Amino acid sequence: MSDRISEKFTQKRLTDSKEADADEDVEETRYELKTEKCGILHVYVQGNIQNLTLTTPLFLTIHDIGSNHTEFHRLVEHPCMAKLKARSVWVHVELPGQEFEAPDLSDSYSFPSMQEIGEDLVHVLNFFNIKYCVVMGEGAGANIAARFVMSFPDRALGAILINFHASVAGIMQYFNEKMMSWKLNAVGMNTTAEQYLIFHKFGNQMESRSDKDKAVTEYVKNLEKRMNAKNLRLYVEAYLNRNDICQQLKEKMKVDTMLVVGTRSSHVSAVEETQSHMDPKITTMVRIDDCGDVFADAPDTFAYDMLLFCQGLGLFSALPMSRHGSICS
C-alpha cells in the first residue's frame, strides 16, 4: 500500500528556468507517495480530487525520458484544453529523480524496471481511492502505461499512448541510447545526449520548424540546468533494457486505446509496428500531419482527437463538439 509521507502543498514554479524573471503560480498539488518497487513517487494533481465522483474524468499521466510531469501540466494548461480541464482531474506521476533540481538518487537505490513501474501505478490509484482512470503516457511513459493496463485492466477505462514502442530497442536505438547513457554517467549532460534527446522529442525535419530555436533552446536549457543527468541516465537505462511486449498486446490490452504519433516524429515506424500487434477493434491510430512533438506542435489537434476518443468512452458527453477547432473557441 502507498503511504503519504509529506503534506500536500500548492507550489510555485519558475516559468522556464531558475533565471526566469518572475514566479508562475501553478495550479497543482504535490504529494509524495511511498510505493513497493519505486520507493518514493512524486505525484502532482491538477483539479479537485477531493470532490471526485465516478463520473468525473480522471487522467493518470506518465512522462517520457528527458522530461517530467511539467510536459503534461503545460498541455492541460493550454487554452485548447480549458473545457476539458474544467471537467476533469489530472494525476501526473513523476518518476524517481526526474523532477527539476532533483538531488542525486542514492547509490544504493535500484531504479525499477518498466514493468515494476507499471505495476506500482496501481498504488497511486489506491492512495486517492480512484476506481479507474484513463491512462496517458508519452514515449517511455507510454510503454509504462501499457504495462499498467495489461496488469490491471479493470482499473483503466482507456489508454492514450503517444509515441508508443512495444518492442525492445532496435540495434541503432540501443547503440544511440547506450552511448548517451554512458556519456551521461561519465561527463553529465553533454552534446551527444542533448542531440539524441532533441531528436527523440522533436523528430525529423527540425529545420522546417519556424520556432525551432525557441523550442530547442528551452528544452536544452532545462536539460542542462534543471535535469539531473545521473538520474536521467537511470531512466534511460530502464527504458533501454525493456522487454518486448508486442505478443501480449492483443490478448492483454483489453481497453480502448488511442495511439498517437506525429508524421515528422522519429517514432512513426515503431508506432505502426506496435499497432499491427494490437486488437484493431479497440485500437485507434491517430497520425497528426506536419508534427514532430504532438504537445508542442499540435495541441489543438491532439485536444480534439482526445475529446472524441474520450466521448467514445462515455466521458465529456455534455461537452458539444461539432467541428475541429471548436474546442478552442
Descriptive notes:
The protein has 329 residues and is an alpha/beta fold. Helix content is 38%, strand content 21%. It has a single domain, classed as Alpha/Beta hydrolase fold, catalytic domain (Rossmann fold, 3-Layer(aba) Sandwich), CATH 3.40.50. The protein contains twelve helices and nine strands. It has a nine-stranded mixed sheet with strand order 1-2-3-5-4-6-7-8-9, sandwiched between helices. α3 (114-127) crosses α4 and α5 runs antiparallel to α8. The radius of gyration is 19 Å and the shape is globular. Residues 1-20 have a biased composition (Basic and acidic residues). Belongs to the NDRG family.
SSE sequence, one letter per element: EEEEHHEHEHEHHHHHEHEHH
Compute the CA-based radius of gyration. Answer: 19 Å
Distance between the termini: 43 Å
Task: Give the overall shape, derived from the CA principal axes.
Answer: globular
Walk across the major sheet and give the strand order: 1-2-3-5-4-6-7-8-9
Name the CATH homologous superfamily.
Alpha/Beta hydrolase fold, catalytic domain
Which percent bin holds the helix content?
25-40%
Low-confidence stretches: 5-25
* Helical segment count: 12
Give the number of DSSP strands: 9
Largest sheet: 9 strands, mixed
